[in-house]
Amino acid sequence: MALTRPRIFLLVLVFLAIALIVAWRWGHRGLPSGEAPLRLTPVSFAEMQGWASSDPRAALSAFKRSCAVLVKKSPLSAMGGVGYAGTVGDWQGACSAAPSSASNAADARRFFETWFSPVAVSAGDDNEGLFTGYYEPELRASRTRHDRYQTPILGQPDDLIEVDLGLFRPEFKNEHIVGRIERQTLLPYPTRAEIDTHGLSRAPILVYAEDPVTVFFLHIQGSGRVRLDDGSIIRLAYAAKNGRAYTPIGRTLIARGELDRAIVSLQSIRDWLNTHPADAREVMETDASYVFFKEEPLADPALGSEGSEGAKLTPEASLAVDYRLHPLGAPFFLEADVPDGDAAKPDRSFRRLLIAQDTGGAIRGAVRGDVFWGLGRRAEEIAGRMKAHGKFTVLLPKPVAAKLGAHKDFGHSP
Fold it and tell me: Is the residue at 272 inside a domain?
């Protein structure tokens, strides 16, 4: 339906109203009111525990893929976040110098040490935060609805409107609203419960899956691989979402007394849903957020789908960060203890360089990250149980890091 002049005027009013709300919520200089300031403090590589014995070769490959995205942008473009990483032009030297591969870990470390300076990230005086994990699930599905294949996986509806408020005001970069127009009124898009109940005539059905619980976790992870009943394998990648707030259903189950907070994980939540089929749908629908997908060829099976930056994700070398604060494409060295692939074993030390290539609805805060673990049972086991407290250090091009001084704060406390 074409937009008439009254509709356009209405949309402008709505966008301006939302922009004012966002401005009120955000305070100044990029941090939401009430959050501790993002503090950056230059350090040395020697102060990074485990750096000297780390193997950043996978991160080097991931960094090259980020550089392929950056090279398409104007050198004057900001790197993103709250602006501490400079411009794309500030990163071009490191991108040009990055080798296609490194024969050993020492050569990879030498590249990063030559071109970057480490800068510790903290939330005010607190340098520790929460780090979780995600993975690429595999589902079984069919192109047609039959037998056990009954749960639809939807593509992006043709009436979904997503607006980047940054196009109207630069300080609102990466802030979006999602909705649809009905009778000259911009309305929120339907919730998960509404979509489950009434369907969406404007959304194509990509495939029918055999298990609604697995489809729900596909929505949480954002992409996955699908083994079709004809034996072929496709990838379903993130296309859009309905714009509703994400609510972790683990929180719902805790509030209802169904699970203890200490044991909440992907595995315990899935077990509860599978053993309570009569209540599973109601619980899943307490998360109003809903994800729409697009079909992609599998291409390199060793890599994940594209992250928010536009680069393919590398297992154990890609990281989702808070895009409001941190730039995509930047290397981050994580110091944490993570679950082992064997649930019976204790956590293990994880000292790894990762490249920020993705974002997530639950990834909020200065010291907050989500590690991509790849595909398979081991990746699912680690990602599903990972709730690690740790710290990370961003690597910035040396001229950019030199401008920070002793330390620099972004944002404010109330």
Answer: no
* Whether residues 8 and 45 fall in one domain: no
Q: Which two tokens stand for residue 88?
A: 């794309």
Q: Say whether both 57 and 3 belong to one domain.
A: no
Overall number of domains in the chain = 2
Count Cβ atoms below 10 Å from residue 369 Cβ, excluding itself.
27
207 falls within a domain: no
3-state secondary structure of 218: helix
Return d(Cα 337, Cα 351) in angstroms, integer.
8
Please determine, for residue 32, whether its predicted confidence score (pLDDT) is greater than 80: no
| Number of DSSP helices (H) and strands (E) in the chain, helices first | 11, 18
In this predicted structure, what is the pLDDT of residue 206? 98
CATH of the domain at 314: 2.40.40.10
Report the amino acid identity of residue 403: K
Average pLDDT over residues 362-378: 94
More confidently predicted of 11 and 335: 335
CA distance 307 to 243: 18
Look up residue 46 and give its amino acid.
A
Q: By the 8 A CB rule, do 290 and 242 touch? A: yes
Indicate if the pLDDT at residue 200 is higher than 50.
yes
Is residue 236 situated within a structural domain?
Answer: no
Q: Tell me: pLDDT of 5 over 60.
A: no
Domain range for 95 = 32-134+303-410
Does residue 413 carry a pLDDT above 50? no
Q: DSSP states of 27-46 as a string?
A: -STT--TTSPPEEEEE--GG
* CA dihedral for 382, 383, 386, 388, sign (positive or negative): positive
Q: 337 and 377: one domain?
A: yes
Please state the rounded mean pLDDT for residues 382-394: 95
- 269 belongs to a structural domain: no
Residues 37, 28: Cα–Cα separation, whole Å: 11
Q: Which amino acid is at 49?
A: Q
